[in-house]
Design a protein that fits this description.
disordered N terminus, globular, Aldehyde Dehydrogenase, Chain A, domain 1, 15 helices, 6-stranded mixed β-sheet, Aldehyde Dehydrogenase, Chain A, domain 2
């Protein structure tokens, strides 16, 4: 069933130490000028990578990373690294993506600090053996699940949240007792460089290493044998990672993306829905894997919703978002050109202007969208929001289900019946009702995709489990041994077996 179209009207200066970049006059960290440690001499890339993995495997084999004291110590060191160098981290994020200090704290450093605190609070309990009921056939005995570290893991981070999406899986890897190789994105080069220096200075170099580089470096890393690979990025590279992992039968966690829809039903407050959608969509200039990729709004609420988007964007960024210190930029010239071209897929209801020199694209809303245009076939990953209308909730559900399963699905409705229908009849990595993106702020909720939007999950306990092997253990007693299971068998033994099983 077709959805009716609506007709309502990648560069800043590099950071040295904790000194603030010249284009950040408002930074509260301007006076901090401690230099970061010098980077060690680089070996031949292939030799360095192979030696790095071998070194970490040797460390893991000693058992150094298994005690809770080591795990907690490294998490405290990671926390200190952020607290003592937040200025350098935020400045690097600004240089790469134009993020304000507030947005950097909200979505990167603050989020990671909260995750560390949550893991430290619960780690001792997570590490305890989990008792499991033992059936009569295995008595006398006791059963349990013991979580043990996987070994040496590889974490490949993306460029859109280059600090958060490297540090958060690292927290899980450390909490589970692993050694880790970290590969930041070369596209967010300032953040990559700061991370490499800080992690080398603060964390245990015998167990945690950063390897910087571009695609060739990633290729060399994937040629090595790891015990788990954690990748965040796009579907195309995700397939490459999975193919490489298959050579060693290495398990993978793939955090990908896709086109996450927002459904706006007529019974909600359209102005509030518009404000929350605008916040989640234009956060990080739309370069968020769980940003609302398009909106399906019920016909009766469409005009008010589009008007609400315009009001919200003006309230957030002023009449000209290009002059707002709070509105980020696209990460690269290539990404800028791709997103700018997507605007041609519909009628511009708001925004549409751009500046190639600064990689600025205005918060843009499209109506009258061509369903076959690239803007409706590709993940947008930028500040362009198509708005379409639907007549009935059945129509909206059918539209979502006709497309690949999204990483996130958003629904704005005060009807319990509508909520239950959407939850029961659609599939997505995660769902947030009457808001967007904020389900990531709940540490007890696993974050991950389904289908082409990813596999596996992390955050909180899910991170610990992702980087652990849940080993099944049965401990039997020697004092009593039932002869029933041993040959020779008889009719009498069969009768007892039928009673027991």
């Amino acid at each position: 069933m077709d959805v009716k179209k609506s007709h309502h009207s990648d560069e800043g200066r590099c950071i040295i130490g904790n000194r603030v970049a010249a284009d950040r006059p408002d930074s509260p960290w301007r006076e901090r000028t401690e230099p970061l440690p010098e980077r060690p001499m680089q070996l031949d890339p292939m030799t360095q990578i192979s030696q790095t993995v071998a070194d970490l495997r040797a460390t893991f084999d000693t058992g150094k990373t298994k005690p809770i004291e080591w795990r907690r110590g490294q998490l405290h060191r990671l926390k200190a690294m952020i607290e003592e160098n937040e200025g350098a981290i935020l400045d690097a994020l600004h240089a790469d993506l134009g993020k304000s200090a507030f947005e950097g704290r909200l979505t990167e450093t603050g989020t990671v600090l909260a995750e560390i605190d949550h893991v430290l609070k619960h780690l001792k309990r997570w590490m305890r053996p989990e008792r499991v009921w033992t059936p009569m056939t295995s008595q006398p005995g006791r059963s349990m699940i013991r979580s043990e570290p996987l070994g040496v893991v590889l974490i490949i981070a993306p460029w859109n949240y280059p600090f958060n999406l490297l540090a958060t899986p690292l927290i899980g890897a450390i909490a589970a007792g692993n050694c880790a190789v970290l590969k930041p994105s070369e596209i967010s080069a300032h953040t990559s460089r700061v991370l490499a220096r800080l992690i080398a200075d603060y964390l245990d170099p015998q167990a945690i290493r950063v390897v910087e580089g571009a695609a060739e470096t990633a290729k060399e890393l994937l040629a090595e044998r790891f015990d788990h690979i954690f990748f965040t990025g796009g579907e195309t590279v995700g397939r490459i990672v999975m193919t490489a992992a298959a050579r060693h039968l290495t398990p993978v966690t793939l955090e990908l993306g896709g086109k996450s829809p927002a459904l706006v039903h007529e019974d909600c407050d359209p102005a509030l829905a518009a404000r929350r959608v605008a916040w989640g969509k234009f956060l990080n200039a739309g370069q968020t894997c769980i940003a609302p990729d398009y909106v399906l709004v019920q016909e009766k609420a469409a005009a008010a919703f589009v008007a609400g988007l315009k009001t919200a964007v003006t309230a957030f960024f002023g009449a000209d978002p290009q002059t707002s210190p709070d509105y980020p930029r696209l990460v690269s010239d290539k990404h800028f050109a791709r997103v700018r071209d997507l605007i041609a897929g519909g009628e511009i209801a708001m925004g549409g202007d751009s500046n190639a020199d600064t990689r600025y694209i205005a918060p843009t809303v499209l109506t009258g969208v061509d369903l076959e245009a690239p803007v409706m076939r590709e993940e947008i990953f930028g500040p362009v929001l198509p708005v379409l209308t639907y007549r009935s909730i059945e129509e909206a559900i059918g539209f979502v289900n006709a497309r690949p399963k999204p990483l996130a699905l958003y629904l704005f409705s005060n009807s319990r019946a509508v909520r239950e229908r959407v939850l029961d009849e659609t599939s997505a990595g995660g769902v947030c009702i009457n808001d967007v993106v904020m389900h990531l702020a709940v540490p007890g909720l696993p974050f991950g995709g389904v289908g082409t939007s990813g596999m596996g999950a992390y955050q909180g306990r899910a991170s610990f489990d992702t980087f652990s092997h849940r080993k099944s253990v049965l401990v039997r007693s020697e004092w009593f041994d039932v002869a029933l299971r041993y040959a020779p068998f008889s009719d009498a033994k069969m009768k007892w077996l039928r009673r027991l099983m």
